[in-house]
Design goal:
The complex is a heterodimer.
Chain A lengths: L2 H12 L5 H13 L1 H21 L6 H11 L1
Helix pairs in contact in A: 1-2, 1-3, 2-3
Chain B lengths: L3 H12 L2 H12 L2 H17 L10 H17 L12 H8 L18 H9 L3 H12 L4 H8 L3 H25 L9
The chains are: A mainly alpha, B mainly alpha.
Chain lengths: ~70, ~190
């Protein structure tokens, strides 16, 4: 696998959408290629950061009661 | 018409997704009051169409699909898949973004405030924002995401790629302005 193939698969690798064989290929390339590993690390950090930040919001306490009323 | 017991089980399961739906609604609408309205309307519609939900399948995805469709119908005047925002035009746009040019790699993410990350997500176009929301925040697979938004998996992948590129660029611009990373050549 060359760098172009690796970078092309990074999103899918990050999102656990590759099969076992493809995962092994990407992982091996990342181990041998610091520049690609750097790109992967950045994308991985970004994904994690987006999740953390967007997970922080919580609804006002009254919403649960309103929804409960809708559902009963 | 579902029996009362079925409705009660349905309600019990559905309400477990309230916080998740609210977070999604907030990112879609970018307004807490509109988000709460959207969530309530999602539950109204879910209850009305509960017969179309098959117990044991992915209720979170089913609810998200309802909410996402409501959002597009109400706030955007129609769904992107019906407004020719999809298809070849979109792909040709993505083709101009080469992976190798995927943007600044000197980003110091640990120094960026959470508010800036949210701002960057909120400034993504809706068709990109909803994919980030489903894949990155809610952990949906590409297939479930494709089912929720009614597009092929390839479109999910290209939107996601584009969205991440844009987020990276946006946060890099902010980091430069804030002096967190050195600015480019003048």
């Amino acid at each position: 696998m060359n760098c172009s193939d690796c970078v092309e698969r990074l999103d899918s690798y990050l999102d656990r959408e590759l099969n076992e064989e493809e995962v092994d290929q990407v992982r091996k390339h990342l181990t041998d290629c610091p520049p690609c590993e750097h790109v992967f690390q950045l994308r991985s950090d970004l994904k994690r950061l987006v999740k953390i930040c967007c997970d922080e919001a919580a609804p006002a306490s009254g919403l649960r009661d309103k929804v409960r009323n809708i559902l009963t | 018409m579902p029996m009362a017991e079925e409705t009660s089980l349905f309600a019990e399961e559905a309400i477990q997704h309230l916080d998740t739906l609210y977070r999604g609604a907030l990112r879609l609408t970018r307004d807490s009051a509109q988000a709460e309205d959207l969530v309530q309307d999602t539950y109204v519609r879910a209850l009305r169409y509960q017969a179309s939900y098959r117990p044991g399948t992915n209720m979170k995805a089913w609810l998200f699909a309802i909410m996402r469709n409501l959002f597009w119908d109400r706030f955007k005047g129609g769904r992107p898949e019906d407004l020719s925002l999809d298809g070849d035009d979109e792909h040709s746009l993505y083709d101009t973004l080469e992976d190798d040019e995927a943007g600044p790699e000197d980003l110091a993410l640990d120094q960026i405030a959470h508010e800036e990350v949210i701002r960057a997500v909120d400034t993504l176009p809706e068709i990109h924002r909803e994919v980030v929301l489903l894949v990155d925040v809610e952990g949906f697979s590409y297939k479930d995401t494709a089912d929720v938004i009614g597009v092929p998996i390839g479109t999910v992948m290209s939107r996601l790629h584009r969205a991440r590129h844009q987020l990276q660029q946006s946060l890099h611009d902010y980091a430069e302005e804030a002096g967190i990373v050195p600015g480019g050549a003048a």
